[in-house]
Amino acid sequence: MQTNLVLRQVRLTDGRAVDLTVENGVVAGLAPPGTNTAAGRSVDCEGLYVSSGWIDLHVHAFPEFEPYGDSIDAIGIECGSTTVVDAGSCGADRIAELAASRSVARTRLLALLNVSRIGLQRVDELSRMEWIDREAALSAARAQAGFVVGFKARISGSVVGGNGLEPLRRAVAIAGAAGLPLMTHIGSAPPAIEEVIPLLRRGDVVTHYLNGKANNLFDDSGRPLPVLQGAIARGVKLDVGHGTASFSFKTAEQARRAGVFFDTISTDIYRGNRLNGPVYGMASVLTKFLSLGYPLTDVIDAVTKRPAAWLKRPELGRIRVGEAANLTIFSLEDRPSLLTDSEGSTRTSRQTIQAEGVVVNGQYTACQVRS
Questions:
Q1: Which CATH superfamily is domain 4-51+320-336+351-366 in?
Q2: Judging by beta carbons within 10 Å of its beta carbon (0-12, 13-18, 19+), is residue 326 exposed, middle or buried?
Q3: Alpha-carbon distance 294 to 288, whole Å?
Q4: 35 vs 361: CA distance, rounded Å
Q5: Superfamily of structural domain 53-315
Q6: Which H/E stretch holds residue 309?
């Protein structure tokens, strides 16, 4: 383990420049630039920012499943995210394998358990009701307590088949019995979005809320549907979940005009959309929200403080002397980026976020993915 590390002249997201010292994996000091004379590895971070480690609340990190799979570190620390949450790749049948895969990764991995016991072994995993095995799901969640942080249900026509709302009703009941939240994927009808959203509870998450499909959360004039307004009022969380087919600039612009803001920004990243786009990595997705006019602090909070609070792990969303050094170092460059959404529409940003490195277990590692 690296026993001493100094990030010199790094800028916190509140604008302060500091020398940040890490000793034995713990943040040991935040001193004015140039005043830290500690020995050990020194990283020149002048012009760079540091935040707590980025948290990606929606990834697919089970490489055995196609098309939705990838290796943990390729979508984690190599993209600047020190914590990733696998969003339902595995159900009860294979969640133990996903948990075991943590031993060969440097990225912290947590998981949402698919309410279908087969998980994404098939992409119509809720089309047969016998795959929604309540006792198997609850037993798996208990066996993997601490690793499983909630449940996942993909509620769109291609997934549920002719079962309509019944998979969601069962998912809500299973999550309630386990005392855990539910993340619900929304997409094409049936079922209609007006039927889906009212079933969600305080603390549950709607992912893909900025998709551009016909069955989305905004009317033809760009106004939020009443069911969306009601969900926000009762504490349902809104997650981006960009993915291959679930982020629209047009919808995102409508949401911003209407004052409907994200709680968390996530990628829904896996091998295909990492290598071929339109996701590429967390920094690219964050840059899209800069291009929409959101302040840097709001964008970074959506991958640090807010997901950490939802996970009930606030220490993952802050930098504090005496606590574990869980850090992402990034640049904010005054250079344009051509950005593409899931529908092929493009925007050009004036500034570009680039993940430069992470600190995990006291060690600094340069990021591999370039925006």
A1: Urease, subunit C, domain 1 (2.30.40.10)
A2: buried
A3: 9
A4: 24
A5: Metal-dependent hydrolases (3.20.20.140)
A6: helix 305-310
Q: Calculate mean pLDDT across residues 360-370.
A: 88
d(CA 60, CA 208): 15
Two tokens, residue 87 = 């969003």
Write out the H or E segment, with its range, that includes residue 296. Answer: helix 296-301
What's the chain's average pLDDT?
96
Domain residue ranges of the chain, discontinuous segments joined by +:
4-51+320-336+351-366, 53-315
Backbone dihedral angles phi then psi of residue 352, each to the nearest 5 degrees: -130, 125
Q: What is the pLDDT of residue 368?
A: 78
Q: What is the pLDDT of residue 3?
A: 59
Q: What is the largest CA-CA distance in the chain?
A: 66
User: The tokens 């998709």 sit on which residue?
Assistant: 211
Beta bridge partners of 207: 185, 239
Chain CA centroid to CA 52, Å: 14
pLDDT at 52: 98
Burial of 42 (0-12, 13-18, 19+ CB in 10 A): middle
Tokens representing 168 are: 């969601």
CA distance 112 to 17: 37
Interhelix angle 282-291/249-257, rounded to 10 degrees, is 50
Cα–Cα distance, 37 to 48 (Å, whole number): 20
Note whether 4-51+320-336+351-366 and 53-315 share their fold.
no
Percent of the chain with pLDDT over 70: 99
For the segment 256-310, what is each residue's pLDDT rounded down to a tens digit? 999 999 999 999 999 999 999 999 999 999 999 999 999 999 999 999 999 999 9
Backbone angles phi, psi at 178, to 5 degrees: -85, -10
Sign of the dihedral through C-alpha 274, 280, 286, 289: negative
Locate tokens 């993909």: which residue? 154
